[in-house]
Amino acid sequence: MADVLKVENLHVSFDTYAGEVHAVRGVTFHVGEGEVLAIVGESGCGKSVTAQTIMKLNPMPPARIKEGSIDLCGKDIVAASEKEMQDIRGRLVSMIFQDPMTCLNPTMKVGKQLTEAISQHRKMTREEAKKEAVRLLEMVQIPNAAERAEMYPHEYSGGMRQRAMIAMAMSCEPKLLIADEPTTALDVTIQAQIMQLMAKVRKETGTAIILITHDLGVVANLADRVAVMYAGKIMETGTAEDIFYRPQHPYTQALLKSLPTVDTDRSEKLVSIAGTPPDLFAPPKGCEFASRCDHCMKLCKQHVPPTYDVGGGHMARCWRLHPDFPKDQKEGN
Amino acid sequence: MAETANNQAVDNQVLVSLHDICKYFNVGRGKTLKAVDGITLDIRKGETLGVVGESGCGKSTLGRVVMGIYHPTKGQLTYNGKVVDLKKTRDRFNYSKKAQIIFQDPYASLNPRMTVGDIIAEGMEIHGMYDKARRQERVYELLETVGLNREHANRFPHEFSGGQRQRIGIARALAIEPEFIVCDEPISALDVSIQSQVINLLKELQGKLGLTYMFIAHDLNIVKYISDRIAVMYLGNLVELADSDEIYAHTLHPYSQALLASVPIPDPDREAQKKATVLGGDVPSPINPKPGCKFAGRCPRATDRCRAETPALREVRPHHFVACHLVESEQEAPAQA
What we know:
Distance between the termini of chain A: 37 Å
Strand order of the largest sheet of chain A: 6-7-8-3-9-10-12-11
Order of helices and strands of chain A: EEEHEEHEHHHHHEHEHEEHHHEEH
Oligomer: heterodimer
Low-confidence stretches of chain B: 1-10, 330-337
Distance between the termini of chain B: 24 Å
CATH class of chain B: Alpha Beta
Largest sheet of chain B: 8 strands, mixed
Shape of chain B: globular
Order of helices and strands of chain B: HEEEHEEHEHHHEHEHEEHHHHEEHH
Shape of chain A: globular
Helix content of chain A: 25-40%
CATH topology of chain B: Rossmann fold
Largest interface: A-B, 45 and 47 residues
């Protein structure tokens, strides 16, 4: 399986008046063809910045790629000019956002917005583009697509707007689709519809997807592989089964335990992670999670742990995985 | 299990009682938005009543009517056996001593120009509780109760993170020693790791102070975890009301069933096994709604009767209320099994 996207040791910073914010601090991951990679993390962990950097959507300055490389279908994104990016966006990679209302142009009919994207990248007459737009709206299961294409975004409901966004993102059949919190603004029943739609789109077109979310339930539903981000770094990455059933990093473990499920006993207290994520103006010297970690050792506060391979591409960044770490203590958690 | 036994003991003590509460908004051109349309329910002393539904179902409006922030268009609110006329300033003032609210957005619900200490003390000042020195003492106590430091009293809200602000909101609600707190989506604006902190805090306070909660949320896993009873709302109506274990074990209303089925489970295997019962369509507009069951348009089992006649809330199993025509006909067979 060839990789659609390869991100190597990516560092992104923002220069602000208060100082430099290290939003992304050495992120390495790859996405295979037709694969769904979920990036999970809390707000401010750098997951959205990572995604925006792949599309070069964050304004530079203040944003700055300090280090690292992004390889998208053989194209070097870091070095690409804005002009080259315009060709890459939409054709190779496209994005759907959290809030579909602010991402659609309120003064243009939805069909028109779709044809605009199509004619930008594909050689088609206006008539053909229009037909293609209706076909796309049908693909995302909008009822009466031909009629709906002639309507404005405000006449759509939240779920339909997100469908229109997906149609637009898929209009040029990109190799990679980045979905940044696609269902966060939606209700559960609509969220289920959109997730089903994304699974269908992936099956029909074979697009690789990067799913950015904080909802582990959504991840379990869609993702093949998962990367857990915290304070600008990937703490753990592996297949969905690795992450959900064999989590190695204390942060992942705590995150999974802190969620009540339908089966959680009500008399049981929820596991909570004390404290708050670190300040990225001045990232801690050692492990980022050390101050909130139950297993914190002296070493953790002083030195950043390297990434350990637990087996089969399952990697985690924790000192407790060091080969010399006593095994019996590992069992004891 | 101890909790359940406790609930049985206080079973009959109704603290807040809503009778046929309606809240209509005039949206111009002779149109009416029926946000809450005839809700009757009791909240018992010491329990947590979870209210769930999708956005626009009127759950927040209901919370605000219960708090007296909105005047109900119709209906009656009874607190501790006494009718509260929220249009009377005196009644509302006395009522606000007993009932408080925690808002969803910890960024918008704290005055940015007041220090945290002033925010928390304001309610006590209004109700003339304690002298100034004792009030200050109380502020410190409250800050410590919700897991903050007393040094935080002199700071302003912008200096705090979302989870900390929500704690300030909780401290403010607790300041005047209320009996009843409406929690209007208190955790949906917070991160996952912070959510469980706030949930644990709310549960701990309930145990310590004997509070009664009305917990409004759209996250069904959390509602199940925190609530003793759950009310499911759809488009201004109550569609199902039962004990939380009962409602998950015997979900009767088709809408509740769809709602529960669409909750994503953080477990890939179970998520894959889950039957695809995705509900089509969107929540219809609550402006000038059609007669009949409001869910009929999306219901996979709707009949002509559903479209013509509005179903009433009936008790189909012990302490289990459902508003659906279809449940009646099925009642004998599955309910007994």
